[in-house]
Specification:
- By secondary structure, this protein is an alpha/beta fold.
- The chain has ten helices and five strands, in the order H-E-E-H-E-H-H-H-H-H-E-H-H-E-H.
- The protein is 51% helix and 7% strand.
- A five-stranded parallel β-sheet has the order 2-1-3-4-5.
- Helix 1 (2-41) crosses helix 5.
- It starts with a helix and ends with a helix.
Length: 296
């Protein structure tokens, strides 16, 4: 019995050590960027925010001099975006909010593939729609007990894989020869055998209604895509733009603006830093045009 208990104790020590390692690595890669944005926003004069998944990341903070803060993050769902929106509406006098209206965002796979354990940091425990158990599970258990969180494990393994392959030279999107096939594979991930999510549609509507209640203008935005992706996507669309148009939101559709510029993309449907910089200027010009037209 004593030997059994010793082995059991050693096993638990090993599990705890692995959990601490994974938690330490993942916290800096995943959770810290969220909490950092919350801390930094307190001293910022913010007129607008950009809410998107990974398609918004190439914009970086190129629009910060215009008072626009980019709070996009890879795999953000509309529920994640709503958590962020509540924070900025409560703490800043916003003029407008720019929400991604990309064709894939109402897909039901985003109901589970999201960042709730990180975005929940934006909402107060006493003012949230989450019940106490869900709130505590997402905010504390999934963050600090990494071995029960598939998301934490995936991030850790991806970081480890990246470290082991750090010396590999990767081709840019412009250099790749199988663009059409890659575009088709990417579109299948976003649309094949999936359905429109009523849950996420409600989340999007609730976001718009929060803004309307505070007199904040909402813009929908569709991010630039490669010609390979657009060709494969064809008319596939889960209808985020339709939800926004039903609330009289203007849609800024940039899907085809860089179709002939493969040099501005990092893959099938994401801009590279140069593309993000050029796109930032386009957003600024369109927002200015919209405000001028509203004041006529």
């Amino acid at each position: 019995m004593k030997k059994y208990l010793q082995k059991l104790f050693s096993f638990f020590l090993g599990v705890m050590a692995i959990n601490i390692l994974v938690t330490f690595v993942v916290d800096g890669l995943y959770y810290e960027p969220y909490t950092k944005m919350i801390r930094e926003s307190k001293d910022q004069n913010i007129k607008g925010i950009i809410l998107a998944d990974s398609h918004g990341l190439p914009l970086k903070q190129n629009l910060s001099d215009k008072g626009i803060v980019n709070v996009s993050w890879g795999s953000d769902s509309y529920e994640d975006m709503d958590n962020k929106l509540q924070f900025y509406l409560d703490h800043h006098d916003l003029e407008y909010v720019i929400i991604s209206a990309d064709n894939h965002l109402l897909s039901n796979y985003r109901e589970n593939l999201n960042n709730l354990e990180a975005s929940i940091n934006y909402v107060n425990a006493y003012e949230t729609d989450y019940n106490f158990i869900d709130y505590a599970y997402h905010k504390y258990v999934k963050r600090y007990f990494s071995l029960v969180s598939p998301k934490n494990r995936d991030i850790f393994l991806a970081r480890l894989k990246s470290f082991l392959k750090k010396n590999l030279v990767r081709k840019s999107w412009e250099e790749k020869e199988d663009k059409l096939a890659r575009g088709e594979r990417r579109v299948r991930i976003h649309f094949e055998n999936l359905r429109k999510s009523a849950v996420l549609s409600d989340d999007l509507s609730r976001m718009i209604e929060r803004c309307e209640a505070k007199g904040v203008k909402v813009f929908g935005i569709k991010y630039p895509l490669t010609s390979a992706y657009i060709r494969a996507m064809d008319t596939a669309n889960f209808g985020a733009d339709s939800v926004m148009e039903a609330h009289d939101c203007r849609i800024l559709d940039f899907q085809k603006v860089f179709m002939k510029r493969n040099d501005l993309f990092s893959d099938e449907d994401h801009l590279n830093p140069e593309g993000g910089k050029l796109f930032s200027d386009m957003i600024t010009n369109n927002l200015l045009d919209s405000r001028l037209s509203m004041n006529k």
